[in-house]
Specification:
The complex is a heterodimer of chains A (561) and B (38). In chain A, helix 4 crosses helix 17 and helix 8 crosses helix 17. Chain A has 561 residues and is an all-alpha fold. Chain A contains 21 helices and no strands. Chain B contains 1 helix and no strands. Chain B is rod-shaped and about 45 Å long. Classes of the chains: A mainly alpha (561), B mainly alpha (38). Chains A and B meet through helix 5, helix 9 and helix 12 of A and helix 1 of B.
Chain lengths: 561, 38
């Protein structure tokens, strides 16, 4: 990191915090604080929806996903436009008609207070844990890069977010996410373009795409139906629709974004904006990962991308073993590079047979490399038993720090901070809304003044930020953060979605039936998690289905009462 | 509740059709990329 990089990084962050704080001071009631006075236009809503979903985990991990696994992760998002249509048609008008602050307020008018409270509590647990992960992901990476303790980077990000969210509420969140998304898009495109410009002169863009394709990275769509394969067209369309229906339709962190619209039209248009742009945006981020993959075919990457951790391991008893593996890796990479150059020559000659042979050579070397990397990972794990040896989240970051020009490094780090702060802000805002409206105002202090509720909301923001920091700092969570995000979401989203779908579509079911059905469904999902090998994504469908079926049966049993 | 007419497309049905149509086109395009380059 050079002086310019530090200036760019802190300048960008300071701009976002100061801008958000100054532009949005002075909320006097919770309409303003929690719903932004219903002043948001459709494109701001759309940007806000995308920024809330796209956390630092997205920008750190997605390029790494493409580098290791190809672009097939894109299929995960195919259900999103379908979910946008359903939510726009069904849920948005209902939320507006009832003039709700939170999604769970609707549940009281449809069912009863206990169902509303249950929905709110399930959401608070889910989102509270997720906020900790959202904060933890960039904290550990930044602490590694900057050499600061995790507690410091966690406190830093958390405190900055508290300042502008506490001061400006929903408006501050939406306004600053606009700046953040701009920085993020510019930074990511720049990274992709620079990765391409640093390729050898004889490798054109067409060659780059063909190389990536030949080596299996352009595996965008898989038509095969295989329940054990997480990423294919059918799982994306079906399970993905359920997941995004629940996330965008019932999770307050997203509902709050489009409830801040000036009208139903503005909210719906914001959702349409998200539905049109999300998949191309993910395509772009994945493609940037592919560009970095091709870059690393011509420039040797480190054998282990978390270089700081590797350096620590080098000073242990396993250091010599790691060094031997590194030497093996150097000579293996040199052999692979010869095979890559042969592949490029074959592509230029347009000789299919030679292309096939060269590709086979490259893939063999790649497999050998992968095995060697596994050995390095295992050795580092022996040397440092408490350390996380999964380095996929460090691939893109390492690329940025090692290869990009000065100034751009600071910008890309600002991208990561921006993404983290944007998501964190959306989550905190949602946690605050639900705590204030669904729990505090509804059940504890129903008749206080508007100013009192704004003050209470500000304190709840600080409370949830502090809790998120505690979750983040305490963690040795799962080995893999992305997996843990999916687990936490899948444990709760299905049940919450089931409650809402019953509310919308099964009109004869009342509060008592759905309340107990939800508790049973949650028990079933936890049972599946602890005692079966069912894939996490399916918990969304299981939870939802159990709620609806049990609620219908329970209501039928209660019919004579 | 008053039915609001959306800008550009004139009706919400057209917007929904646009989203689903765009999704189908993208799936076809991405499948073509997969088949052509893999």
């Amino acid at each position: 990191m050079t002086t310019l990089d530090w200036l760019v990084l802190f300048g960008t962050i300071a701009f976002i915090v100061v801008y958000g704080t100054l532009k949005t001071r002075g909320s006097r009631n919770i309409e303003s604080y929690l719903k932004g006075d219903n002043s948001m236009k459709w494109w701001m809503i759309g940007v806000s929806i995308m920024a809330t979903q796209a956390s630092a985990v997205t920008f750190l991990s997605t390029p790494g996903q493409a580098i290791e696994d190809g672009m097939r992760f894109l299929q995960f998002y195919f259900g999103l436009p379908i979910a946008m249509v359903i939510i726009s048609y069904t849920m948005v008008p209902i939320y507006y008609k009832l003039n709700v602050f939170t999604a769970y307020e609707y549940l009281e008018s449809r069912f009863d207070l206990k169902t509303r409270s249950l929905g709110a509590v399930l959401f608070l647990i889910l989102r509270g844990l997720s906020a900790g992960i959202t904060l933890y992901a960039p904290s550990i990476v930044l602490s590694t890069i900057l050499g600061w303790p995790t507690s410091v980077t966690t406190l830093l990000i958390g405190t900055l977010v508290i300042i502008y969210v506490t001061t400006g509420g929903t408006k501050a969140v939406s306004l600053t996410q606009r700046q953040q998304m701009t920085i993020i898009m510019v930074g990511m495109v720049l990274a992709g373009v620079l990765a391409y410009t640093m390729l050898p002169n004889h490798v054109s863009f067409g060659d780059t795409v063909q190389i990536a394709g030949e080596l299996g990275k352009l595996n965008l769509v898989n038509l095969e139906f295989n329940p054990n394969d997480r990423y294919n067209l059918w799982s994306g369309l079906l399970a993905g629709t359920f997941l995004f229906l629940s996330y965008f339709g019932t999770d307050q962190s997203q509902v709050a974004r489009y409830l801040s619209g000036k009208s139903v039209t503005e909210s719906r248009l914001g959702l349409m904006f998200n539905g049109l742009l999300k998949i191309p945006m993910q395509f772009m981020i994945l493609f940037i990962g592919v560009m970095v993959f091709v870059f690393y075919l011509f420039h040797q990457p480190p054998v282990f991308h978390n270089t700081v951790l590797k350096e620590r391991a080098m000073h242990t008893a396993q250091g010599a073993q790691i060094q031997r593996l590194e030497h093996s890796y150097d000579s293996l990479y040199a052999q692979k590079q010869m095979a890559v150059n042969a592949l490029v020559d074959a592509i230029h000659a347009d000789d299919e047979a030679t292309i096939v042979e060269a590709k086979k050579q490259v893939l063999e070397k790649q497999d050998a490399e992968k095995q060697l990397r596994e050995q390095v990972r295992a050795t580092i794990g022996e040397a440092l038993p408490d350390a996380k040896t999964q380095d996929r989240d460090y691939i893109f970051l390492n690329f940025v720090l090692t290869n990009l020009p000065t100034g751009v490094v600071g910008l890309l780090l600002a991208v990561m901070f921006s993404a983290a702060m944007g998501s964190m802000a959306g989550e905190l805002n949602a946690l605050t809304s639900t705590t204030t409206v669904d729990i505090y105002k509804r059940s504890f202090r129903p008749n206080a003044s508007p100013v009192h509720y704004v003050k209470a909301s500000q304190w709840f923001t600080v409370m949830w930020a502090a809790l998120a920091m505690v979750f983040a700092m305490l963690a040795s969570f799962a080995e893999n953060l992305i997996q843990f995000v999916n687990i936490v979401g899948s444990l709760f989203y299905g049940t919450i979605l089931g409650i809402f779908l019953t509310a919308f579509y099964v009109k004869h079911v009342k509060g008592t039936a759905v309340f107990w059905a939800a508790l049973i469904a949650e028990g079933v999902v936890f049972y599946c998690y602890f005692f079966t090998n069912i894939a996490f994504l399916l918990f969304n469908i299981i939870g939802c289905a159990v709620v609806m079926i049990v609620a219908i049966v329970w209501q039928w049993l209660l019919r004579d009462k | 509740m008053e039915q609001e007419r959306p800008p550009l497309m004139g009706s919400w049905s057209r917007w929904y059709a646009l989203l689903i149509g765009t999704l189908v086109i993208q799936i076809v395009l991405y499948y073509w990329i997969t088949a052509s380059f893999s």
